[in-house]
Design a protein that fits this description.
The structure is a single chain. By secondary structure, the protein is an alpha+beta fold. Among the domains are: 216 residues, Sandwich (Immunoglobulin-like); 112 residues, Neutral Protease Domain 2 (Neutral Protease, domain 2); 116 residues, Neutral Protease Domain 2 (Neutral Protease, domain 2, Orthogonal Bundle); 104 residues. It is built from 24 helices and 31 strands. A hairpin with a 4-residue loop joins strand 6 and strand 7. Helix 3 packs across helix 5, helix 14 packs across helix 15 and helix 17 packs antiparallel against helix 18. Its cofactor is Zn(2+). InterPro entries: Aminopeptidase_N-like_N, Aminopeptidase_N-like_N_sf, ERAP1-like_C_dom, M1_APN-typ, Peptidase_M1, Peptidase_M1_aminopeptidases, Peptidase_M1_dom, Peptidase_M4/M1_CTD_sf. Pfam families: ERAP1_C, Peptidase_M1, Peptidase_M1_N. Belongs to the peptidase M1 family. This is Aminopeptidase.
Length: 884
């Protein structure tokens, strides 16, 4: 057994499972019974007396092993709850190696914590069959979520990613409900239970346990077919929903069949299953899950109604559909060997998901979006001491949930984008196709991918990518100017700005993307392509114009001299959207870390008041919002920064207007929604007045008064301006909305309350049974982003930890960790960091300890920044007329 991980004994390996579930209890207890038969290959020469499998919160009734001619029953069945294992002790030594069959009878519960085999509550539209599970208020659908290690909650199994096997699934269900699994239905068998039958599914290909899935409910679907033929047939593609919602699956459906064909061509391997089902699940811990052939989604990530949905969800649905389809090859067909290489699944699916959306929607400027969303968020987490390498040691499956984070997904995909830009997209995708062909239906490592890419490109990819994947953090490249040349120095970037020598030992391969010329419009690529040492001087650089990291394809920060930053700001009209985002994002990060100054950032951003691109504004508003957030503790600076923000956005919000015009681009609509929200919250009077006027008309019954994409902006402004009455009205909207995104939008708007009392009321509402577990972080994050009431989030968590917060969220560590990480990471006060650390010191924090480290590191870095830059910012604001 490898000592760096806790895995099952290697001498027993599954080759095939038959999973049969029956006696499902639909009336309140939600129990079920099951039999799992596992064909097992045994390779222990000196005999054995017990077998160990994964099992969690199941009761195993009996186990029988058929080995050769003998059949042995387990004499003792014992559980190791902490390691989520069951040991089947046969009471005597069994001398056998070869193929054996293990049959286990067990029972379990269909839980309500979005892990394993679980139930989701919903309010149905239309007539519902009597057999559908329900209580006084809700109906229920059943589905599964097995990644990372929750197949063991549904049936006893060998629950590790490299223990692949084939699966047969049989489900006993009411005749008037639909059962789904990874594969198409094979046959229906009669059942002894009245009104029930057993649905048997075709055998799956070889796959990991975490990709197995099934679902039972009152489902209906919309259907399309791929345009390409697979084995002579067009594959059926379906979006399943509970009754009454299927038409909102059309947009996802239309994307899905096109993306299946696109990936089949790009990866040079046909989609390997005979169907693709997408299922909308009413309660879901993540955004979606890539179960092979039965992909599950939270409703807002797969359903879209052009008449009632905010347009931002169009983008979300398209991307999440593409991301999960990418996994059908990258993750499902070829799976990481162990959880430490999770990034192989997630980083790649993120990058290639955006690649597919760029292919379908070239006018969305997908890579500009990638740079402002994915890359900047990855920078934020990776700039902390408490970050982790992309490839991170994972001792056991229980540790893995915490690395489903911005490093695995967003740094992983940013580094892949960097490599693809360096090798060229065509060469890169050829290497990926070769990798998939070489390892299909098995497991692979990062080195396997590097080998395939090295072969395709003729370059030693491992030599320059190894540190990006196996070392923590990323560099900042500091530029010094001399006539005709620049000096470059790389060091590790830390948000706290205090890198110690031992933390600065990595020398990264840094693709420079250096462009230079007499002006921005005439600049061309410099012959020096990469920085491969700590310091280097680059000659023949034109003082007229130069720029490093063109289009922000490299995963690093650039720190220019103050005068050069100013010149780049002056040349902004000649820069790409990605360049502008990089320039602003780098200036902000360097200011926080102390490599640059906030005064320089404010002066740079001031020039962008004439900007018309949504993605650039998104970066500006995020960064200026963060500066305002960190310096909120000082009243005069806070008010002056509000005036700065107001002056900055006034020309843009007045120009973009309120009306969505026919034929207008997606990005223009997004810009309008973003600027109206920002202007309303910052107190732009005309925006506030118009928002309140429309809000009143909306409450008066004129639903057309608020465009679906402006609900968030107008609700937020109303709550900020009117307090309790508006909060009550929007709580009512939350309870009555039929729009698929309506609840999320209301929850985000709640966060704009202005008094501690209302913030506590919001938190109490969030922890009532009116808000689903999957959504409890939405209002909490919005409150955390609001400096007026931010402390109330911490007070609520601290005062209600034992009675509400922990009991409600602890069943699912993914949900609890996300709630804490994003609810508590916005403070800039060391005293609060001390309080949080002291509070959790005596708690068992397994499953969210990494999140707590990130919170502590972030707060202390911000506190240091606030202390260092407050006086400088005050001086700049005074000199520029913002201080009253």
């Amino acid at each position: 057994m490898a000592s760096d991980r806790d895995i099952l004994p290697a001498w027993a390996k599954p080759t095939h499972y038959t999973v049969s579930l029956h006696d499902l209890e639909f009336g309140g207890k939600f129990t079920y019974k099951g039999t799992v038969t596992i064909n097992t290959k045994i390779t222990k020469d000196d005999g054995f007396s017990d077998l160990v499998l994964n099992s969690h919160q199941l009761k195993v009734h009996s186990a029988e092993l058929k080995a050769g001619d003998a059949a042995k029953s387990a004499k003792d069945i014992s559980y190791d709850e902490k390691r989520q294992r069951v040991t089947l002790d046969f009471g005597e030594k069994i001398d056998y190696s070869g193929e054996a069959t293990l049959e286990i009878k067990f029972e379990g519960t269909i839980n309500n914590i979005m892990a394993g085999f679980y139930r989701s509550k919903y309010k149905p539209k239309g007539e519902v069959p009597a057999s559908v599970a329900k209580d006084d208020e809700f109906h229920y659908m059943f589905s599964t979520q097995f990644e990372s290690c929750d197949a063991r909650r549904a049936f006893p199994c060998f629950d590790e990613p490299n223990l692949k096997a084939t699966f047969d699934v049989e489900l006993e269900v009411p005749k008037d409900q639909i059962a789904l699994s990874n594969m198409p239905e094979k046959e229906i068998k009669p059942s002894k239970r009245d009104g029930f039958h057993t649905v048997v599914f075709e055998r799956s290909p070889v796959m990991s346990t975490y990709l197995l899935a099934w679902a039972i409910g009152d489902f209906e679907y919309v259907e399309a077919f791929t345009e390409r033929k697979y084995n002579g047939k067009n594959i059926p593609v379906r979006v399943y929903t509970t009754r009454g919602l299927k038409e909102q699956g059309r947009f996802a459906l239309d994307n899905c069949h096109k993306i299946v064909d696109y990936f089949s061509e790009v990866f040079q391997i046909d989609y390997p299953l005979p169907k693709v089902d997408l299922l909308a699940v009413h309660e879901f811990s993540h955004g979606a899950m890539e179960n092979w052939g039965l992909i599950t989604y939270r409703t807002t990530a797969v359903l879209f109604d052009p008449a009632t949905s905010a347009d931002s969800y169009r983008n979300r649905v398209a991307y999440v559909v593409a991301h999960e389809l990418a996994h059908q090859w990258f993750g499902n067909l070829v799976t990481m060997d162990w959880w430490s290489e999770l990034w192989l699944n997630e980083g790649f699916a993120t990058w290639v998901g955006w690649l597919a959306i760029d292919h379908l929607y070239p006018d969305w400027n997908v890579w500009g979006q990638f740079v402002t969303d994915s890359t900047q968020q990855a920078f934020a987490l990776d700039a902390l001491r408490t970050s982790h390498p992309i490839e991170v040691p994972v001792y056991d499956g229980l540790e893995v949930d915490q690395i489903f984070d911005h490093i695995s997904y967003l740094k992983g995909s940013s580094v892949i984008r960097m490599l693809s830009a360096h090798l060229g997209e065509k060469v890169f995708l050829q290497g990926v196709a070769d990798y998939l062909k070489a390892h299909q239906y098995s497991n692979a490592t990062t080195n396997d991918l590097w080998s395939a890419l090295s072969k395709a490109s003729g370059q030693d990819v491992n030599s320059f990518m190894d540190f990006w994947v196996r070392k923590i953090g990323f560099p900042v490249v500091t530029v010094a100017e001399e006539p005709g040349q620049i000096g470059l120095r790389q060091q590790r970037f830390l948000l706290s700005g205090d890198v110690k020598p031992e933390e600065n030992s990595t020398t990264w391969w840094i693709p420079l993307g250096l462009h230079t010329g007499s002006s921005a419009s005439s600049a061309t690529l410099h012959k020096t392509t990469a920085l491969t040492q700590k310091e280097e001087t680059i000659r023949n650089v034109d003082d007229g114009f130069y720029q490093i990291n063109k289009n922000l394809t490299g995963f690093y920060r650039t720190n220019y001299p103050a005068e050069r930053l100013k010149k780049l700001g002056e040349a902004r009209a000649q820069l790409t959207v990605e360049d502008k985002i990089g320039l602003i994002g780098d200036a902000y990060a360097n200011a926080v870390a102390g490599y640059g100054s906030t005064a320089g950032l404010l002066a740079l951003v001031e020039r962008f008041s004439d900007e018309s691109d949504y993605l650039v504004w998104s970066q500006i508003l995020t960064n200026i919002g963060n500066v305002r957030s960190v310096l909120a503790g000082s009243d005069d600076v806070s008010e002056a920064l509000r005036k700065y923000h107001l002056k900055l956005i006034t020309p843009a919000v007045e120009k973009v207007g309120w009306d969505f015009k026919d034929g207008e681009s997606f990005l223009t609509g997004q810009l309008r929604a973003s600027l109206i929200l920002s202007a309303g919250v910052v107190g732009h009077q005309a925006t506030v007045d118009e928002s309140l006027k429309r809000f009143d008309s909306y409450l008066g019954g004129d639903k057309s008064a608020i465009h679906p994409s402006l609900r968030r902006a107008i609700f937020a402004t109303a709550i900020r301006q009117r307090g309790a009455p508006a909060l009550k009205a929007i709580q009512q909207e939350y309870l009555s909305t039929t729009s698929i995104d309506g609840k999320e939008i209301c929850l985000q708007a709640f966060g704009r309350v202005q008094t501690p009392e209302l913030a506590q009321e919001v938190m109490s509402f969030v922890f009532s049974d009116k808000v689903a577990m999957q959504d409890k972080h939405s209002s909490t994050i919005a409150l955390a982003n609001n400096s007026k009431v931010r402390p109330e989030v911490w007070h609520f968590i601290r005062d209600n930890w034992d009675t509400k917060v922990h009991p409600t969220l602890s069943g699912n560590s993914v949900v609890l960790e996300r709630f804490l990480r994003f609810g508590l990471n916005k403070f800039a006060d060391e005293k609060i960091a001390d309080d949080i650390a002291a509070f959790f010191k005596s708690k068992d924090t397994r499953g969210y300890d990494k999140g707590l480290e990130v919170i502590d590191d972030t707060i202390r870095s911000y506190a240091k920044y606030a202390k260092r830059d407050e006086a400088i910012v005050r001086e700049w604001l005074g000199a520029n007329g913002y201080l009253s």
